[in-house]
Amino acid sequence: MNKIYDSPAPAKLNLFLHIVGRKDNGNHLLQSVFMLIDWWDLLSFEIRNDGLVSRSDEGSLALPEQDLSVKAALALQKASGTSQGVHIHLKKFLPAQAGMGGGSSNAATTLLALNQLWGLHWSTKQLAKIGLSLGADVPFFLHGTSAWVEGIGEKLTSIELPPASFVVVKPSTGLETRRIFQNPDLKRDTKPATISDFAARPFHFGCNDLQPVAQSLCSNVSKAIFWLQTFGLNARMTGTGSAVFAHTPSSVAFPKAPNDWSIKQCKNLDVHPLAMWASSDK
Predict the structure, then answer these.
(1) What is the pLDDT of residues 172-219, one digit of tens each?
(2) Catalytic residue (one of 137, 170, 209, 264)
(3) Which of 109, 132, 158, 168 supports an S-S bond with 245, CB 3.0-4.6 Å?
């Protein structure tokens, strides 16, 4: 095998996101539930025998030369000592600066695919060590199921969620994660919750502590939430935004979103589409 085509890199939604403290190094401690949804980028991989890592793109977004998929490939190449390279082709469908983990998911899919393509036979635990160095969300996408998340995003406990439908709206403007976490008005002392607290009402539990700051920085977050509320839905922001979402009855139909926003009706996923490539043996 020297090629892998159209490997999915699914997005995630934060069903809630609480900031419960802060470490001495400034990293924020969180509690959240991350849930995979059926909206994804697609990545293809082809071995390069010259040892180089390269990338090409399809889509309207201008991506940096070393996006997270390239950084993941370079990190795995260095850690494994392989002489093989790869060309990555990315079909970009997920919006950027949305709080849906698109870049981190691309990195995780790259690690899973190259583990196969390069014949490394690394465990998911080994890959996750590299993933965490790339971004706090990468281990979740390697983990491969919905998860109760703690720490800085590295402590994962698998949970089961009932099948459900959601609508996701992404305003045309985005938000930089750094601006939110550096904001002095960010609430950082929410009382820790338990999985049993969440399980009692999984799609309506808690809040997103980052949302008030995000709304102060980006008025379109408020506009998108209000737009979904006009349909009688309980909307909130996912992650660091600017995408917002709401749990919906499966029969709800939505008109075209205003102001060139993206709108997508999604369902949650039980497992990552590439879960068959994951291994916890080593």
Answers:
(1) 898 888 999 999 999 999 999 999 999 999 999 999 999 999 999 999
(2) 137
(3) 168
Tokens of 44: 């293809």
Is 41 tagged catalytic? Answer: no
Tokens, residue 129: 């060590």
Q: How distant is the alpha carbon of residue 249 from its chain centre?
A: 24
| The amino acid at 88 | I
DSSP 118: T
Question: Which residue among 12, 71, 92, 264 is the active-site one?
Answer: 12
pLDDT at 282: 41
Residue 221: what are its φ and ψ, rounded to 5°? -60, -45
Per-residue tokens: 93: 């469908």
* Angle at 7 (CA atoms; ends 5, 10), nearest 5 degrees: 160
Q: Where are the domains of the chain?
A: 1-282
Q: Which of 8-12, 117-121, 182-186, 274-278 is predicted with the least confidence, judged by mean pLDDT?
A: 274-278
Query: Structure pTM?
Result: 0.94
Domain spanning 1-282 has what CATH number? 3.30.230.10
